[in-house]
Amino acid sequence: MGVVVLALIAICAGFLGALLGLGGGVILVPGSLYVSEHTTWIATLTPQSAVALSVMMMIFTGLGSSMSYMKSGLVDYKAGLTFFVGAAPGVVVGALLNGYFDKDSFHLFFGVLLITLATIMIVRDKLTPIHWFVRRSKVRHFTDANGKQFTYGYPISFAIVLSFFVGMLSGLFGIGGGALLVPAMLILFHFPPHIAVATSMFLVFLSSLINAGSHMTLGNIPWANVLPVVIGGYIGGKLGAAMTKKLQSQTLVIILRIVLLIMGVRSVIIGIMGSV
């Protein structure tokens, strides 16, 4: 039963992660912790093992969705590799800091993060693009597989610092970082939405390789639970990337905002009550 439940959670996480550029950890981490704490289906997970499990899933979610986006010609490889320069050391720092969390403090800070991510998703469509960064950047031109050209830009130094911060949160909490990076790409750097999501998932794949190596070195990975999660994440990532061209994702975004808020408030309450 535990194998099936974990696989289903991973499929949902991978699907939403690829569809919205999130990476899926915002679903898998609280979902797997909840199942381990309230059922006997799987062995009890610590915050460190739940985060490491999410990181392992994100490798295959990122791989599955990135391959689909690559075939569609939507990935900006130069931008993705630039962000990776900052994200790679960031995930290592985050993985090291993760070891200082006990279960209550993890619930508290993860809940605050979820509420913050939900708030960003709520307000991001209402924010006006900022032109300052693009004006001070080397303008990028990108032509997709359909021959349509887009113009945007990002200061390299700022992009690396931003991606370091995003990578640190990824190593710390097991999230893909797209929930923070995609809005920044849209609002600050004027990325077209579909290119931002595709490039974000390419970065999720690359940074997750470093992230997984860090957590593996620290002994955080619960190997008995890895197989159903990575299979589910890969399937979900492929489905999400395929559906992004056919599905109006606004309804899913609204649902995800509500779910993140509920899970965030719940995690904060658990963290506060447990530490009292």
From TrEMBL:
One of its GO terms (cellular component) is plasma membrane. It is found in: Cell membrane; Membrane. The chain crosses the membrane at residues 49-69, 81-100, 106-123, 156-189, 195-213, 252-273. It comes from the Bacteria. It holds the Pfam family TauE. Keywords: Cell membrane, Membrane, Transmembrane, Transmembrane helix. It is a multi-pass membrane protein. Belongs to the 4-toluene sulfonate uptake permease (TSUP) (TC 2.A.102) family. This is Probable membrane transporter protein. It comes from Caryophanon tenue.
